[in-house]
């Protein structure tokens, strides 16, 4: 731990995940784009196997996946509350409704984890496929100091490890992730809302079967 400068808790600037620059403006839909820090905290509407597509849970939320934005960033991007937006980088893309809130700091966006893409979700303008989830734009970034194994709760596993980890969390393993706050995404308002229910989509679905 000392060799990596981990003896004391200190501030470390975000690592460069190199997932934004190569996609900025490459597939423009005419709307403004902006790179924002992407967080995936634990959500209020569902936990683990109790997903937010449960009817009782949906009465407490908006009935589909949402991404939270600051009022300042939303104004700059021409996004109003409940607009369909697209979030993407070189790892993938997702679509969701925008929640514009004064609770979110400028320069940051967040999507609560465990939001299934089976409810109320159009296709992505980037991928031409349906939606995506918070995992679509994140990737695993191992940290050597987290591979010190064999010490009970300090052991690690790749099923819950990397930038996708929700933070903050009530579980120790979530706090331990090395770069879960370092991912950046490009956010923009969607121009064409395509539910992928036409003839072409039928052919795609048939090929998947």
Automatic annotation (TrEMBL):
Top-level taxonomic group: Bacteria
Span of the signal peptide: none
Cofactor requirements of the protein: [4Fe-4S] cluster; Mo-bis(molybdopterin guanine dinucleotide)
GO cellular component: membrane; oxidoreductase complex
Record carries keyword 4Fe-4S: yes
GO terms classed as biological process: cellular respiration
SUPFAM superfamilies xrefs: ADC-like
Domain Molybdopterin dinucleotide-binding: 36-152
GO molecular-function term, one example from the UniProt record: molybdopterin cofactor binding
Membrane-spanning parts: none
Sorted UniProt keywords: 4Fe-4S, Iron, Iron-sulfur, Metal-binding, Molybdenum, Oxidoreductase
Name the record gives this protein: Molybdopterin dinucleotide-binding domain-containing protein
């Amino acid at each position: 731990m000392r060799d990596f400068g981990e003896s004391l808790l200190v501030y470390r600037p975000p690592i460069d995940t190199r997932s934004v620059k190569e996609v900025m403006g490459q597939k423009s839909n005419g709307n403004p784009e902006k790179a924002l820090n992407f967080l995936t905290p634990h959500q209020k509407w569902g936990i683990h196997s109790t997903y937010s597509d449960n009817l009782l849970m949906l009465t407490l939320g908006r009935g589909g996946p949402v991404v939270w934005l600051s009022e300042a960033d939303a104004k700059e991007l021409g996004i109003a509350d409940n607009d369909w937006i697209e979030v993407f980088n070189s790892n993938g893309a997702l679509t969701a409704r925008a929640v514009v809130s004064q609770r979110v700091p400028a320069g940051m966006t967040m999507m609560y984890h465990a939001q299934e893409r089976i409810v109320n979700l159009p296709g992505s303008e980037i991928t031409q496929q349906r939606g995506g989830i918070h995992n679509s734009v994140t990737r695993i970034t191992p940290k050597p100091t987290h591979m010190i194994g064999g010490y009970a709760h300090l052991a690690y596993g790749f099923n819950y490890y990397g930038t996708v980890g929700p933070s903050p969390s009530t579980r120790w393993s979530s706090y331990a992730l090395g770069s879960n706050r370092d991912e950046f995404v490009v956010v923009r308002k969607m121009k064409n809302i395509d539910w992928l229910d036409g003839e072409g989509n039928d052919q795609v679905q048939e090929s998947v079967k």
